[in-house]
């Protein structure tokens, strides 16, 4: 009877180690995606604020707020995908994407998207 049960603990230990490995890989993937999402939100916030500042700037020397938003998104490791920041307007709404490297459990590259909005309160001209 004892000879038939020999090695059964080894199978359980191997199964538990495989489960622990999959859980660790999943946690690493989740951390990578969450870091990418935080980077995307930071880039979106910076791009929206830069575009809004350009809208509020009195010196608008022919600089397009969309171009400024793209520069700030790129500085933060993102790509500007849309910018609703019309010259003469009072708000900038941007969307950016950040590439997330290949994950362990999902081999394809992933893209994280973030959006941000900044509103400019222009001072009323008057006495």
What would you note in describing this structure?
It is a single chain. This protein starts with a helix and ends in an 8-residue tail after the last strand. Strands 1-2-3 form a 3-stranded antiparallel beta sheet. By secondary structure, it is α+β, with helices and mostly antiparallel strands. Helix 2 (8-56) runs antiparallel to helix 3 (65-75). It has one domain. The mean pLDDT is 86. It contains 3 helices and 3 strands, in the order H-H-H-E-E-E.
Short structural summary:
The chain has one domain (2-119). 50% of the residues lie in helices and 20% in strands.
Topology, pairings included?
Layout: H1 2-5, H2 8-56, H3 65-75, E1 79-84, E2 91-100, E3 110-119
Antiparallel strand pairs: 1-2, 2-3
Helix pairs in contact: 2-3
Feature tags:
127 residues, alpha+beta, three-stranded antiparallel β-sheet, 3 helices, 3 strands, rod-shaped
The average pLDDT score comes to: 86
For the termini, the CA-CA separation is 101 Å
Radius of gyration: 25 Å
Q: What is the helix tally? A: 3
Helical percentage: 40-55%
Number of structural domains: 1
